[in-house]
Amino acid sequence: MSTAFDLVDINQEQFNVDLGIKGRRALVCASSKGLGRACAAALAAEGVHVTMTARGAEALAQAAADLRKLYPEVEITEVAGDITTPEGRAAALAACPSPDILVNNAGGPPPGDFRNWTRDDWIKALDANMLTPIELIKATVDGMIERKFGRIVNITSAAVKAPIDVLGLSNGARSGLTGFVAGLSRKTVRHNVTINALLPGPFDTDRLRTVSAGQSKASGIPVEEIMNKRMGENPAGRFGDPEEFGLACAFLCGAKAGFITGQNLLLDGGAFPGTF
Questions:
Q1: What's domain 25-203+243-267's architecture?
Q2: Chain-centroid distance, C-alpha 53
Q3: Which segments of the protein form a coiled coil according to its record (predicted)?
């Protein structure tokens, strides 16, 4: 008996995925390198006009130039500045005042022992990884609600689900953001505005190397040995590719992802050992 899914009847063109966000505008924070850059690239590939931010002007200019070359049909705007400061946020929002898509991202705090952290260390971590995303959401969410479309993705960390002892500053700040979003995301979804988080595990980025270098310094074990051991212990037997992360971000930003909100998507190669 023939069904709609008979292989002989499949029209391959039906399986081409169009996320339905071509022409939308996105503000992607900390996007000159690593996971932020991967998100910017994945959105640009979908025809989204992207405003990129980062502290390092040279790296940002190169990342923006690369995307313009790959996707000449979209507008790529770069804003150099520290998104964790009021001035940096003001500059980014001046360049992209009404984003349809907001990808919150900022470099994580350094590893260490909580006994050595001062109040200033904690405030800096909270400003970067909790309060800055909240400020950007506050500045943009009402416009999204009015336009009946908005996608907010917070890049947090797998440490939100499985805390890493040496990353206590990150554990605390990012978990605070997650708790805040859990409530807000249930209020905005009625207006087709979703707020979700991507929780990266070990991806092949500068951040991973920085953490590994800190562990190497503390233990005396070579960085390469630490990284190879961590890679081998992951069920996937490897580190994540930033491109994989960017595609997950683009999916959550898609027009048909409006029924997904308040979720924390773990991308860790299966490292978290739980069922739920």
A1: 3-Layer(aba) Sandwich (3.40)
A2: 13
A3: none
